[in-house]
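Lab notebook, bench 4. Still working through the backlog of constructs that have no structural model yet. Next entry is a single chain of 137 residues. Request: give me the structure tokens for it.
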Amino acid sequence: MSEDPHPLVGLTDEALQVLLRRAIRDTLILGLIPSLVLLFASGWRDAAMLAVGAAISAASILEWQRLIRLINAKLDKQKTPRSALLVVIFFVLRLTVFAGAIYGSLKCFHGSVIALLCGLGLAVVAMAWEALRLLKE
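Model written out:
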């Protein structure tokens, strides 16, 4: 009885990078289209809140992509990139900056918190979609 290996077992670093780039693209598209709909349906405040959440989601995937590249270099015993310390610092700094962006958008835009949460959840939706596409192949 021959069992096929799980698709995640054969996932290369390059394939992972492509998957994450597609997830960033999906997140931006999934943020832009509903933001435009919200702009006309309920006003600019809710559209701005969704756009802020989507931008934070896309930037989060980008930061995770950089961190994964660093971790994979360590696991493969390759030369650590010179910017390794910067990647870690920016990863921690990103959390602070995005917390400030969330706070600022809530205070300045006075839009719907639900729209912001939907935008923040787009990264999870995009990553789940890409994972399902990977498993389907």
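Notes after review: The chain has one domain: 13-136. Helices lie at 13-41, 44-75, 84-109, 113-120, 122-136. Flag for follow-up if needed.
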